[in-house]
Design brief:
Chain lengths: ~110, ~120
C-alpha cells in the first residue's frame, strides 16, 4: 500500500529565496507523480505531472524531479514570491485507480 | 470555461440528516472522484467512478453514497450513518483512470465545506 510523506510540514522564507519541497513514497512502481497547490479554503490546482519515464518536468519557476529508485520527488521553486504562499501537495498512485496524497507542505513567503 | 463545479460551497447539516453535494464537469472526462480533507491530513478517497453507471468504494466509503447516471455528474450523499461528517469535500476528474497510454492527471473543483450543527 502506497504511503506518501512530505517534508517539511511548514516552511517560512524571505522573498527571492530558492527552495525545495520534498516528497517520498513507499511503492516505487508508479506510472506518474503529481504536484498540486492549494490556497486556503480552495480546491487543488495541478502544477506538474511527471511521468515515470521522465526525470523532471518544468513550468515557469517550478521544477519537479522524480527518482523512482529512491522513492523521492522534489519540487524546486526559484526566486520565491509572496504569491507562492500556499500548501503544496504531492500525490502518487496506489495501483491504477487512486492517488495517495501527502499531508502537504505549508509555505509562507514573506516580503 | 471548462472545469469542475461543486455546489454548495458551504453546507450545514443537522444530526440525522442526509445531505447531497453536487459535482458537475464539462471536461468530457471519464473518471470522477470524491475526496475528503481534514485539517493537517492528506486527502482521503471516498468513492470513484470510471464510467457511467459504475462506481467503486475508496478508503473511507462508510456513511457515504454516490451515483453516476450521467458522464458529467457525480453527486455525493453524506448520510446520517457518517459519524463525523464535518470536513472539506473535494470532487475531481481525470480523462481516464490512469494506466498504460494515458496520464490520469487529476483536476479538482473548488470544494464544499460541510459542517454538522
Amino acid at each position: 500500500k502506497q504511503e506518501v510523506t512530505q517534508i517539511p510540514a511548514a516552511l517560512s522564507v524571505p522573498e527571492g529565496e530558492n527552495l525545495v519541497l520534498n516528497c517520498s513514497f513507499t511503492d516505487s512502481a508508479i506510472y506518474n507523480l503529481q504536484w498540486f497547490r492549494q490556497d486556503p479554503g480552495k480546491g487543488l490546482t495541478s502544477l506538474l505531472l511527471i511521468q515515470s519515464s521522465q526525470r523532471e518536468q518544468t513550468s515557469g519557476r517550478l521544477n519537479a524531479s522524480l527518482d523512482k529508485s529512491s522513492g523521492r520527488s522534489t519540487l524546486y521553486i526559484a526566486a520565491s514570491q509572496p504569491g507562492d504562499s500556499a500548501t503544496y501537495l504531492c500525490a502518487a498512485p496506489d495501483g491504477y485507480n487512486k492517488l495517495i496524497f501527502g499531508a502537504g507542505t505549508r509555505l509562507a513567503v514573506h516580503p | 470555461d471548462g472545469g469542475i463545479t461543486q455546489s454548495p460551497k458551504y453546507l450545514f447539516r443537522k444530526e440525522g440528516q442526509n445531505v447531497t453535494l453536487s459535482c458537475e464537469q464539462n471536461l468530457n472526462h471519464d473518471a470522477m472522484y470524491w475526496y475528503r480533507q481534514d485539517p493537517g491530513q492528506g486527502l482521503r478517497l471516498i468513492y470513484y467512478s470510471q464510467i457511467v453507471n459504475d462506481f467503486q468504494k475508496g478508503d473511507i466509503a462508510e456513511g457515504y453514497s454516490v451515483s453516476r447516471e450521467k458522464k458529467e455528474s457525480f453527486p455525493l450523499t453524506v448520510t446520517s450513518a457518517q459519524k463525523n461528517p464535518t470536513a472539506f469535500y473535494l470532487c475531481a476528474s481525470s480523462m481516464k483512470v490512469a494506466g498504460v497510454g494515458n496520464t490520469g492527471e487529476l483536476f479538482f473543483g473548488e470544494g464544499s465545506r460541510l459542517t454538522v450543527l
